[in-house]
Amino acid sequence: MRLLIAENGHALYAERIRSACPELQLVASTQPEQLRTLAGECELWLGQPDLLAPLLREGLRPQWLQSTWAGITPLLTAGLPRDYRLSRAVGIFGQVMAEYVLGHLLAHERRLFARLAAQVEQRWDHRLPCSLRGRRVLVVGCGDIGQAVANFLQPFGVELRGVASQTREQAPFVEVADLVDLPRLIAWADYVINLLPDTPATRDLYDARLLAYFRADAVLINAGRGVAVVDADLVAALEQNKLAAAVIDVCREEPLPPGHAFWTAPRLLLTGHSSAPTDPLLMSELFIDNLRRWQAGEALRGEVDFARGY
Description:
Elements: E1 2-6, H1 10-20, E2 25-28, H2 32-39, E3 44-47, H3 49-57, E4 64-67, E5 85-87, H4 94-109, H5 112-120, E6 136-140, H6 144-153, E7 159-164, E8 175-178, H7 182-188, E9 191-194, H8 208-211, E10 219-222, H9 231-239, E11 245-248, E12 268-270, H10 280-295
Helix pairs in contact: 1-10, 2-3, 4-6
């Protein structure tokens, strides 16, 4: 059995997987020509969707592909084959994403960026900070990452509500509603944390109509998918003071091109798609676990339903 590893850190993956699965023959590359040559001889693929999607486009396919990203949008492009098993990275991003969210919530409450600006201007800023206790946090996307974010925030005394594909009970959320209730919950929230995947139902979700429901002192954090936000509408909402701030980790076009309005929008912080990097050790452990499941003919962790898109 041969495994193709198409990942920038492939040496780290190969070392861990080789020690746990000596029966696998491992080949690795990030170069398109080499990947094209190797892929046809490998039943299993592990790696980045942006490197593997071109191979699928050329008619190559594995028996099973394990993505090293939580998002698998490049692999779902129209016209690509779907007659193979696909799993996305799950269960490995929870803590690092929660740390990202908590960091920005604390930075906002403690006014860190305002104080830095005041220091640069040599202006004494003695305005008092606030606490997270009692803040109303809406997590939009309550899968394994959203669950981890909620668990991480709960000890800080925030009130947690969520939005998912359907209404359900899910601790520690006081309420988990479906997408139709998003306007009501946005009007309630101090912080809106978008963690939704890219699906037809989530594209262009945060448009002018939805942004109008935000409280003037609320903050939007988008660490889900860039296509969820209508860029021009968010910039207009910030310019018109319809929300206090936005933290944008993911954009429609990456890298963000020069001249894009996000670069100069008021109170908008760009974090360069850095919120939850893949840990090669954790990702290798997930692959090894899923390999055992695949060999046993069992359901895979993070197995993708092509019809749903996640």
